[in-house]
Amino acid sequence: MERLEFRFAGRPGTPLSADGEALVGVVGSGNLEVMIERADLGGACEASVDTSIHGFGDTWQQVIGDFVERRGLANIRLSINDGGATPAVVMLRLDQAWAGLGEKAP
Amino acid sequence: MDVSTHSVRGDWNSLARNYDARLARGLALAGGKVIPSPQTTALMEAVIEPGDRICIEGNNQKHADFLSRALAEVDPAKVHGLHVVQSNIALAPHLDIFESGIARRLDFCYAGPQGLRLAQLVKAGKVEVGAIHTYLELYSRYFADLTPRVSLIAAEAADRDGNLYTGPNTEDTPAIVEATAFRSGVLIAQVNRIVDKVPRVDVPGDWVSFVVEAPKPHYIEPIFTRDPGAITDIQVLMAMMVIRGIYEKYGVTRLNHGIGFDTAAIELILPTYAEELGLRGKICRYMSVNPCPTLIPAIESGFIEAIHCAGSELGMERYVSERSDVFFIGRDGTMRSNRVFCQLAGHYADLFIGSTLQIDLEGNSSTATHARMTGFGGAPNFGSESRGRRHGSPAWLRAGQEAHRQGMPRGRKLVVQMVETFKEGLAPTFVERLDAWELMDTFDMPLPPVMVYGDDLTHIVTEEGIANLLLCDSLAERAQAIRGVAGYTEVGRKRDRQMVEKLRARGAILYPEDIGVDKRLASRDLLAARSIKDLVRWSEGLYAPPARFKNW
User: Fold this and answer.
1) CB-based contact, B520 to chain A, within 8 Å
2) Distances (CA, A) of B279 to B54, B243, B249
3) Which residues are B377's β-sheet partners?
4) Inter-chain contact A62–B420, Cβ cutoff 8 Å?
5) For B16-213, CATH number?
């Protein structure tokens, strides 16, 4: 297993969810689990990745960085448990977890 | 003009006389048209002459396997130096005859599982390869410079006059028989059984020279069965994009599907996703494709109205027979397939969609992999612009408007590659340079073995989005459109983000949100059948999957 930690500057000026409620989007499939939580990170986003495949730190940084940028995220913590998913699966699961978060938002 | 000063050929019927001599030698041995199976090799020694062009029938399904083994047992002192002209090199005896010197030269289409051994034999100087063809090319050459002198074919049944019944796996038999029988060639058929009366005559008996009842039924491989259980969420996502971004947009009604899991995903979300979108009767009405079991739900729910097949598929026989409004069925009640006609129908359809292993920045694609000599099969004819087409259809005209924005208005066939950006083991699908170049050098080929050329391709669909190459005005734009859907491959990461945004504004790149594809729905839950058992249920029990696919 390899543990990767990333921090991204989030979109400036994005408030925490109004009532500070901890909202979580979770999706899982055979080789990937994703959890998205709102957290007070001073506007930033953090991601921690546990992966069974070594040496793809650059790709993870790009995939998660693109996701954060495309969705304009701030104050979000991502936790990923990877058993060898392709970037395609990672992005799909991130999008689906984010959609799950949106559905539960007030 | 004085005729006598010109050289005159003088002899006009040498082939027919030679045929009579061969037939007489064979009859002397066998005593009649139907020969006992233990005499098969002796018959071949009697009727095959050194240097003959020979076809051993076999495509990716039906194989004249008994005759192939019998040929491998002839005495190389009597029969040698044969020129093999046949579509598939799939069985071990196909190559054994080169090892022993019975055969020397080879013109073929596809080598599949024997690709590695073929490559080794070529390197060792045992096989002289003439050329690697597509099916239509090779069978076209049967009617020009590569007519077989002897063809060994396979059928389901024969009567004592040699009338042949092929059953649903008619496949390549009509093309081989036509060329051989009408140019004084010898036709030997292996059949599963000799009967008093065949259910239908697929090949008239007076075209057939000899018939042998094989000890075992001919070999058939169920190669078009895809278990829905193995389809992934990503494939469902790509299938959704194809339906919205291509089938719905252009109104594609006549098409050919490749045989991978990607296109199986499309077939399995027609009754769910496309139905919700109100597309029944508007897309996917006529198909040129084998009777793939994953088509069953789309047929049953009224999407697909007619299908012409290149071959059959094990387990689908009864289902197909009971759906004679959809399939091409003989008066006897079983299907008649025909590879050549199916390839032609697919060539002139509105759309081809398939998968590939590698795509370069021009959009050229190849399934060639290192150290193997696999060949082309049918994909290049399905997956190419039909430049001889003249009749209009909404999809063809709409694509033509995008392709020909100036000058003479034209139509355009849609040619689509549907690929994930990474294969298993994180091998990238998108590459700067195809392995095909290396293969050309290794095997001394005249050209890199490209399956679909970039200028024939119109769309690339990946999990990231769709590149519409018709809307690119230069090779530089085309390369960026490809990079723009190439995900996190090296090729994708080198994209020019500004140019990609420009191309996206023009519609040359489409992401799921641009075409109303909701990624939340991209899940196996959308599949109309999620297992082989579901397919059996959809077929009302008419589909009988081979044992290896039964896991319940």
Assistant:
1) yes
2) 49, 9, 11
3) B134
4) no
5) 3.40.1080.10
CA contacts within 13 A on the Cβ side of B398: 14
Summarize pLDDT for A42-90 with one digit per residue, the tens. Answer: 999 999 999 998 989 999 999 999 999 988 889 999 999 998 888 999 9
Q: What are the residue boundaries of the structural domains of chain B, listed by start?
A: 16-213, 228-533
Which residues of chain B neighbour A95 with C-beta distances below 8 Å? 519-520
SS3 A48: strand
Q: Is the CB of residue B44 less than 8 Å from the CB of residue B70?
A: yes
What's the Cα-to-Cα distance from B16 to each of B173, B179, B183, B503, rounded to whole Å? 22, 14, 8, 63
Asked if this assembly's ipTM is beyond 0.90, the reply is: no
DSSP string over B283-337: S--EEES---GGGHHHHHTT---EEE-SS--TT-HHHHHT-TTTS-B-TTSSB--
CB contact under 8 A, A88 and B422: yes
Beta bridge partners of B84: B54, B106
Which chain A residues contact residue B522 at CB under 8 A? 92, 96
Domain boundaries, chain A: 2-12+23-104
DSSP string, B34-76: EE-GGGHHHHHHHH--TT-EEEE-B-SS-B-HHHHHHHHTS-T
- pTM value? 0.94
- Which CATH fold topology does A2-12+23-104 show? Ribosomal Protein S5; domain 2 (3.30.230)
